[in-house]
Amino acid sequence: MLTAFPLKRVFALLTVLCSTMNLPGAHAAADDSAAGADQQVYVVRRGWHIDIGMAASELPPPLSQIAFDLPSARYVFFGFADKHYLLAKNHHAPVLLSALFPGAGIVLTTGIANSPAQAFGEKQVIALRVTPQQMRGLQSFIWRSLRTRDEMLKVYESGPYDDSVYFLAVRKYSAFHTCNTWGAEALRSAGFHVHAGGVIFAWQLWTQARRLKHSQDQAEAAGASLRVGAAD
Predict the structure, then answer these.
(1) Among 14-28, 35-49, 183-197, where is mean pLDDT lowest?
(2) Could you say which of 41, 110, 118, 210 is the most buried, measured as most Cβ atoms within 10 Å of its Cβ?
(3) What is each CA distance from 96 to 38, 216, 222, in whole angstroms?
(4) Residue 222 confidence (pLDDT)
């Protein structure tokens, strides 16, 4: 059995890992060099928390309803979290304890007007190429994660900074289904070979996303070599 001190540390770690992070440069001038980017999924590490994002122009109905709430967004990022903890004014012991058990989930949706690398930092962003079918699988997962009524999406309340809003989530949050578990499930829905079971911390998902990126880069390099060889 855990003693009182270690137990408090565990509470803090499991809840803070999915708290909101600062978003430097989110409202800087748009980066025109990213304008041609399409069919890419962005995995962003924000401290203890992983967000999954995509170009706003690629949001299909009914998910495109989000564009009405974030009209200036070029990219939209989604992050799952514990509703009670995230919206609590004071993160005292009872609030920390409640996050360990299944409770209401919430999805923080963030719009950025510049590129993901500018907003979050180049080293905190992994861009994964996806086929249209993979993108549809991911977007379907995100839509099913949001609580709707008659196929209509309603903002629960404004987010912690400009161009961010909260939507209620269908799934519950717990110590065994954190923001990072949700992120892994999102990538699985896009057909990526990642495991979601036991993924609690950001580094567990980040490591898998880096492997995916490495595999894609190797495949692209091999394809380029074949094309050069064929041309010769």
Answers:
(1) 14-28
(2) 110
(3) 40, 39, 49
(4) 83
Contact (CB, 8 A) for 193 and 204? no
pTM: 0.79
Dihedrals phi, psi of 6, to nearest 5 degrees = -60, -35
- Alpha-carbon distances of 14 from 67, 75, 100, 160, 180, rounded to whole Å: 31, 28, 7, 20, 11
Residue pointed to by tokens 């994002």 = 53
HSE at residue 177, side-chain half, CA atoms within 13 A, is 17
Taking residues 151-178, report their average pLDDT. Answer: 92
- For tokens 């409640």, name the residue: 98
Question: 85, exposed or middle or buried, with CB in 10 Å at 0-12, 13-18, 19+?
Answer: buried
Tokens 């909260």, located at residue = 166
* Distance, C-alpha 137 to centroid of its chain: 15
Per DSSP, helices labelled H in the chain are 4-16, 66-69, 83-87, 93-98, 116-120, 132-145, 179-189, 202-231
pLDDT at residue number 60: 95
Q: How many angstroms separate the CA atoms of 209 and 50, rounded? A: 11
